[in-house]
Amino acid sequence: DGKSIAFVSDRYGNDDIFITSIEGNSPMRVTYRSTGDQLTSWDAGFLLFESNRDFRALEWDREIQMVSEKGGTPYRAMDALGKYAVMSPDGSKVAFVKGSCRIEREAYTGSANLDLWLFDLKSGQYTQLTDYEGNDFLPKWKDNNTIYFISARSGKYNVHTLGLDQRSVENAVTNEKSFGMIRLFPSNAFENKANSR
Questions:
Q1: Average pLDDT, integer, range 49-76
Q2: 72: burial class by Cβ within 10 Å (0-12, 13-18, 19+)?
Q3: Among 128, 93, 131, which Cα is nearest to 111's?
Q4: CB of 69 closer than 8 Å to CB of 46
Q5: Could you tell me which residues come within 8 angstroms of residue 96 by beta carbon, excluding any fewer than 6 positions away?
Q6: Beta-carbon neighbour count of residue 3 at 10 Å?
Q7: Tens digits of per-residue pLDDT, 160-184?
Q8: Which residues fall within 8 angstroms of residue 13, CB to CB, at 6 or more apart?
Q9: Is the pLDDT of residue 86 over 90?
């Protein structure tokens, strides 16, 4: 609603999630675990975050946890492990990334590549969204049926869109040729450019 900010701070010794008013009141602490928590999404009244709470000794990827914006006990959003999890605006789905390749390896192709996946919170169904042999990562929702993400499929990391209805990746929204992009901020930054294509 534009009135609060969620952020990560190590003020108690490890990374925890806090929420504060944009007017600067005392932050409300949301997570309290001794392992670090990394916020990835805040939509539909819930915070999604990555954490190494239970499976770090066995797996490379982190657990995707969920907690109410009002606080309470966090719980696993899904059984799968992954990263970059973001909830759809209507709160029904989570887009996330599976794979173990470092994003610094822009030209990598192989079995450790990063792919986008979708988890339906109501049905519990998983759907693989991309199968490009290079890296697809950092999904952001444009609306409940369209996802922006970064991919190396155009030679350098650029922002692409994926329509869930057609399961098709559309042309790149950006056209970087020298230095690929590795960060993608809220989707409304691309609205005008995407609509002008």
A1: 85
A2: exposed
A3: 131
A4: yes
A5: 64, 78, 80, 82, 83, 84, 85, 86, 116, 117, 118, 119, 139
A6: 7
A7: 999 998 777 777 889 888 888 878 7
A8: 34
A9: yes
